[in-house]
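2024-03-11 09:14:02 DEBUG pipeline.ingest accepted 1 chain
2024-03-11 09:14:02 DEBUG pipeline.ingest length=128
2024-03-11 09:14:03 DEBUG pipeline.predict start
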Amino acid sequence: MKEIPLGAENRREVLAEERHLASTLGNAGVHVVSTPSLIGFLELVSHSLLLNYLEGDEVSVGTRVEVDHLAAAVLGQPIVTLARIEQVERRRITFAVEARQGDRVVMKGRHGRTVVSRERLLGAKPAR
């Protein structure tokens, strides 16, 4: 893994689709972007930032999510996601994350990812 600078940022714009709505996930009549979908968008922007620093067979995996869902996000307007590296402890990286729609913050918090060997991750066998 290359050295990861504190403060490095990544920004992505997402246009939510019907499959991202709370109503599609089973919350009947709630036609706004679901909490799990927003979390997924924040994980993606964080993961994408780390791709610049991975080497060999390294991958990043999500290990922690601490977010507040502050406002509804609707279809038809872009959602801008942001990940900023706050802390690096060996292979554990903590991001400040945020999702905005227009001038409203719809979700904000922290996300943790760990850099691991793909081979070790996928080749691991459960302990007996």
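2024-03-11 09:14:41 DEBUG pipeline.report The chain is about 15% helix and 40% strand.
2024-03-11 09:14:41 DEBUG pipeline.predict end
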